[in-house]
Amino acid sequence: MSITQILFWFLSVLALFSALMVVTSKNPVHSVLWLILTFFSISGHYILLNAQFLAVVNVIVYAGAIMVLFLFVIMLMNLNKSVEPQKNRWIKIAGGIAGGCLLLVLVAALRNSEIRQQVVQVKEGEIGLIRNLGRELFTTYVVPFEISSILFLSAMVGAVVIGKKD
Amino acid sequence: MYLLAIDGYFILEKFLLVGLIITLSMVVAMYATYAERKVAAFLQDRIGPNRAGPFGLLQPLADGGKLFFKEEIIPLASSKALFILGPLLAMITALMTSAVIPWSRPLYIFDREVSLQIADINIGILYIFGVVSLGVYGIMIGGWASNNKFSLLAAIRGASQMISYELAMGLSLIALLMLTGSLQMSVIVENQQGGRLGGLLSWHVFYQPLGFFIFFICALAECNRTPFDLPEAENELNFGYHQEYSSMKLGFYLFAEYINMFISGVVMSTLFFGGYDIPFVNEATWNIHPNWLAILGFMMLLTKAFFFVFVFMWIRWTIPRFRYDQLMILGWKKLIPLALINMVVTALVILIWKK
Questions:
Q1: In B, which residues are within 8 Å of A47 by CB distance?
Q2: Which of A95, B9, B42, B176 is the residue whose CA sits 20 to 30 A from A146?
Q3: From A93-97, B107-111, B213-217, B320-324, the region with the lowest mean pLDDT
Q4: Do A53 and B159 touch (CB under 8 A)?
C-alpha cells in the first residue's frame, strides 16, 4: 500500500468512527468534540484530493467557528443526563427504520449515477488550489456565487431582526 | 508539494528544523516570563526578580522547577480526559502556528539548499487562521471540564472574544492579500524586499498602516493579553479558566500564552515588517557567504518579534482592562467596519493604480 492509500483508510476509519461516536455519546459536549474530529478527518480527505483551500476553510469555518458556537450553547444550557428527555422506545425504532430507508434511497440513487464512472484525481487535481478555484467561482459560476451570498446576507439580516429586543 | 523528491536527508532536515523551532519557542517563552516581570518592575519603579542567579536570570528555571514539583490535583467532579486535553490543546495550537513562517533565507550546507521554513504551502495565511481559530478549544474545554462556575464563565468569555476578533483580523488581512496577490508566506516576505532605503519602504506597514493597527489590536485580543484579558480577570472570576488547574497543567496554560505572544510577534513582523529583511542596508549586495546572510536575517526577524513582545508587555502594564460590553462594541461596531472600509479603499486604489 502506498502512503496515500494508508492515509485514505486511516482517515476514513477515523471519520466513520468519530461520526458514530457523535451519535452514541451520552454527553452532548463529548458529541460536539467528536464532531470536530469528524470535520478534521474530512479535511484530511480534502488534502488528499489536493483541495487545500477547501480543507483549510472547512477547519476555519466549521471546526473553528460553528462548532465553537455549538459548544458555547451546550455548555451554557448545561445539559446532562437528568434533564435529557427520555424518548419512547417505539419512537426510537421508528427513527431507526426511517434512517435506514433514507440510507437505502441514497445508495440506490448513487449506484447508477455518473459519479461512479469518474476517476478520482488523488494528489493531482489542480482545481482545488485557491487561484483556480477563485477564477472558476468568479467567471463560470459567478451568478450562483452571488445568489448564495445574497442568501447569507438575508439570513444575517433575519438573525439581527430576531435578536433585537423590542 | 507532491512533486518534491522526499529522501532521507529531507526528512532529517525537517525533523531538525521542527525540533529547533519548538525549542526556540519554548526558550523564548521561558525568558518572556522573566522579561515580563522585569518590564513590570521597571514600569512600576521596582527591581523585579534578582535572587536566582546573576540579575535573576535563573528565575524561569526556578519557576519551572516549582511548577513541576507541585502537587497535581484533578477535581473529582470533572471529566478527567477533557481536563487533561485542555492544556494539551492550548500548547499544541500555540506551537503549530510556527510551521509556515519563513524564518530566513535558505542555508547552504554541503551543497544542499536547506529552506528555513517547515512547510511552504500556498495557503500559508489561511493555515495560520485555521490554527488560531482552534486555539479557543484549549480554553473552552479546560474551563468546562473544571466543573467550576467561574471557569465556565471565563471560558465562554474567552470563546466569544476570540471569535469576535478573528473576523476583524481576517478582514484586515484581505487588504494585505490584495497587495501581494498571494497567500504564500514566502511570497509575502519576498514582496517586501529591495525597496528604497534598503527595503524599508517596501514593507507592508507603509501601505497598510490601518490594516496593521487592526491586526495588532486583534493579536492582543487573541493572545488574551491586557486590555483584553477578560478570560482571566482575577477580580471578577477569581483566576479565570485555569482556576482548578495546578502543577505543570497550569504551567502549560501560562506558557502557551507566552508562546502565542512570541509567535504573533513573528507573524506581525513577517506580514507587515519585512520578515527577515534588514532595514536601511541593501544586504543582497554584500559580498559575504549566504549562510551568514541567512543568520543575520534570522537575528533581524527575532529582534522585530522581541520588539513586539516588549510592546505587548508595555501595554499590559499601562492600560486597564476593558469592560465586557466595551470589548464587544470595539470588536463588532468599530474594528469590523474600519477593516471593511480599509479593504474597499485598498481595492479601489489598486484598481485605479493598475489602470
A1: none
A2: B176
A3: B107-111
A4: no
